[in-house]
Amino acid sequence: MNSSLFLKVFVYLKEVESTKRMMMMMGATTTTTTTSKTPLFLVKKKRTDLKIVQLSRSRSRRKLPPPPKSVLKTNSPPPAEEEEKRSSITKAKNSKDAFKLETNEIALYDTTLRDGAQQVGMSLTLDDKLAVSKRLKEIGVRFIEGGYPGSNPKDAKYFEVEANNAREMSSQSNSGSSKNSSYTDAADVSNKNKNKNVNNNTNTFISAFGMTRRKGVSVEQDAGLQAMLDCPAPVACIVAKAWDEQCEKVLEVTLEENLQLIEESVAYLIENGKDVIVDAEHFYDGYNANPEYALKCLKTAANAGAKAIALCDTNGGMMPWDVEAITRIVVESLGDTMIGVHMHNDGGLAVANSIAGVRAGATMVQGCFNGYGERTGNADLVVIAANLALKMGKKVVPDGELAKLTECARTIAKICRQDILARQPYVGPDAFAHKGGLHVAALKKMPMSYNHILPELVGNSARSVVSELSGRGNVLDAAYKTGREVSGDMAKKVLAQIKSLESKGFILEDAGASVDILFQRAASDYEAPFNVVEFTVHSGSTSFGVVAKEEDDDDGSSDSGSGSSDSNSSSNGNGTNRNRAPSEGYKEGSFSSNQAIVKIDTFLTKNMETRLSVAEGNGPVDALAKALRSALRDDFPQLDGISLSDYKVDLLSQGGTTAAVTRVTIDFVDSATDLRWRTVGAHSSIIEASFRALVDGLEYGIERCADGCVVDFETN
Questions:
Q1: Predicted confidence (pLDDT) per residue in 494-549, tens digit
Q2: First-to-last CA distance in the chain?
Q3: For residue 475, what is the enclosing H or E element?
């Protein structure tokens, strides 16, 4: 031991002895420990590695009588109620170690509620965050990052509500053991509570996000760290810089100062009962720039007591082979510390890079469900979980939960008000959809012939769609799924109609009701409930035309009021003053008129009835819809419960002219059953395209009305 280090140890021991004597003078027992921060010393190891050794740290939780400020300077203890609130979740957290994994297990760390919420166009309410959290707990994600308690009241409230929920679930448990009431998805729930849809997974731990202390501020005075201590979450995840250039230019600290920020912040949180994860921001870029310093940041965090360190590709530009090589070096360098990876998708490789990190030895993967996040998003935990489980044999969620992955991903998308990506691997609606006739024929003989897994393993299903590229097998499969028995000849006939319609601009692959109507009309015994004989639409408006106003002179007076007799200011020969300019907008008091006349034949009784209906509407399509409903309502009252939920128009390419074919897609919903269906129409006239989709949609709805009726034709 060199003389400098010996001197530091000697001085420290003298200070400890002096403090003990003072405490004894105040009546404290000799077993009482001080609350002052134990210093950390750096001592040299083999090679040039540094190891932080803590000379002494008592684990005693006994409380001391507060010494006089003049004798020993410490932080004032929090009020009893605040202390209880702070420790309500952390006090029993070691009943199950969040970082103890089974053999071959990979911990999933979801940050949808924090990093994912930074996606443009995504804004989560408190109820949204709690709903997402509930679903993640049900499927058994290991860690849920609930937010940043120091940043906004909503995140602070989230942690408070989760803490209350955890306490309630713990109190309902029939187990007397000290389960992790601190945000694990609960203690074991008794059978009498299972009907409350409370999942028994005890696999989940809530994490709060923060950062290392600010420069020039002690850990005791740092608002962000204090917010994390006040937060009842058992796990604290703090972001730390691991790129030397970022330290100097962004944080504006020296490299040594950055190490102090990491060391002191981690140690402080641990001393106050938190399990700490360190997110090493920009680690891979930092390693490429200065590998020695980047590793030193990680070792500082590990030696200070961090349970896990996540290596972040913050800019999202790494290649998988580089990620694997660098991650392997880190795993070998840090020994028993859990290593995780957190990848962004700027290069489109976030999932591949996450898998590469696991190959190198990482046992935690951070990301977001459905890949939400800033810029191009985070690594998609849905895809990663499926790949790790099904391709690499890793355990990522409790047994039986992987089959709920599709439902979970779609539920979270709905809560976040985001459309699920149709082509999202594993869980998207089109992930196992087949359009080509040869593929569908092969799949009937061998389900894995064009699927990389059985879709049911992740809760999805294979489907075939019909289009001009389809074969007869697609049509037969579509008919089978609607419960129809279709002969080969009928399938051939319907397929010919599909190809003809798609050549005219129809797209039927997602318009299931339009395809079903084709099957209905192709059946020899089918009689349509009604037939449109003809329709007429009249649209007019009085809003167009030039509305003249007089221009003012520079002095604000009107030309017409100037009394000038100059011929140039009187008239241009057609009654319009040359100095009068058209005003903006439509004529004042103008109106538009949209009227439709629909003539139909109905076949509800033995004798055909012809009806004529007239209606006005807010536009020509609305007028047609009202007229058609008016003509049908007496015979088919179920139409009152059917409404349009969406209406879309696509202009098909004809050189960009007004003569282009228009495709209209209409979505319908039955309010009584929540049954939804879609139809499509195409024509050079947008009105006729709309009317075709409208007629098909109402005919489909009549056949599947709220009480399950089928049109009953009288035979007498």
A1: 666 666 665 555 555 555 566 666 666 666 666 677 888 888 988 887 665 555 55
A2: 112
A3: helix 472-481
Query: Beta partners for 535?
Result: 598
Task: Show the DSSP H helices in 304-418 as ranges.
Answer: 320-334, 350-359, 381-391, 405-415
**Alpha carbon 38 to chain centroid, angstroms:** 43
Q: What does the alpha-carbon distance between residue 215 and residue 265 come to, in Å, rounded to a whole number? A: 11
Beta carbons within 8 Å of 356's beta carbon, 6+ residues apart: 320, 321, 323, 324, 327
Contact 254, 245 (CB under 8 A): no
3-state helix/strand/coil string of 238-254? EEEECCHHHHHHHHCCC
> Residue with structure tokens 């709220």?
706
DSSP SS3 for 457: helix
Rounded to 5 degrees, φ, ψ at 534 are: -165, 165
Output the six-digit token pair for 136: 């993640």
Instruction: State the Cα–Cα distance between residues 177 and 52, nearest whole angstrom.
Output: 36
Task: Decide: helix, strand or coil at residue 32.
Answer: coil
Please state the three-class secondary structure of 25-90 as a single string.
HCCCCCCCCCCCCCCEEEEECCCCCEEEEECCCCCCCCCCCCCCCCCCCCCCCCCHHHHHHHHHHH
Residue 105, phi then psi, degrees to nearest 5: -95, 140
What's the rounded Cα separation, in Å, for the pair 339 and 315?
A: 19
- What is the amino acid identity at position 667? D
* Cβ proximity of 635 and 698 under 8 Å: no
Using the structure block, give the residue that is written with the tokens 């097998």: 473
Cβ atoms within 10 Å, residue 576:
12
Which of 278, 293, 347, 290 lies closest to 315 in space, CA to CA?
A: 347
**Cα separation of 476 and 464, whole Å?**
10
What is the enclosing helix (H) or strand (E) of 294?
helix 291-303
- Residue 536: what residue type? T
Provide the mean pLDDT of the chain.
74
Q: How far is CA 690 from the centre of its chain?
A: 34
Cα 516 versus chain centre, distance: 33
620 to 537, 540, 589, 685: CA distances (angstroms)? 7, 10, 21, 12
Residue 36 identity (one-letter amino acid): S
User: From residue 377, how far is each of 32, 79, 207, 348 by CA, in Å?
Assistant: 51, 42, 20, 9
Backbone CA torsion sign across 242, 245, 250, 255: positive
Distance in angstroms (rounded) separating the CA atoms of residues 630 and 11: 96
How many alpha carbons fall within 13 Å on the CB side of residue 628? 27
Low-confidence stretches of the chain (pLDDT < 50) are 22-78, 82-83, 85-95, 174, 176-200, 467-469, 553-578, 580, 706-716
Q: What is the pLDDT of residues 176-227, one digit of tens each?
A: 444 443 444 333 323 333 333 233 356 799 999 999 999 999 999 999 999 9
Within a 10 A sphere around the Cβ of 608, how many other Cβ atoms?
A: 11
The rounded Cα 290 to chain-centroid distance in angstroms is: 35
Name the token pair of 456: 């049911």
| Residue 235 in tokens | 């796990």
Do residues 281 and 239 touch, judged by C-beta distance below 8 A?
Answer: yes
What would you report as the CA-atom Rg of the chain, rounded to the nearest whole angstrom?
36
Distance CA 231, CA 82 (A): 10
Cα 457 from Cα 311, distance rounded (Å):
30
Classified as helix, coil or strand, 540 is strand
Distance CA 584, CA 408 (A): 52
CA atoms of 468 and 461, how far apart (whole Å): 23
DSSP bridge pairs for 664: 649, 681
- Distance, in Å, from the CA atom of 260 to the CA atom of 267, rounded to the nearest integer, reads 10
Output DSSP code: residue 428: S
Burial class of residue 524 (count of CB atoms within 10 Å of its CB; 0-12, 13-18, 19+): exposed
Looking at residue 399, its amino acid is D
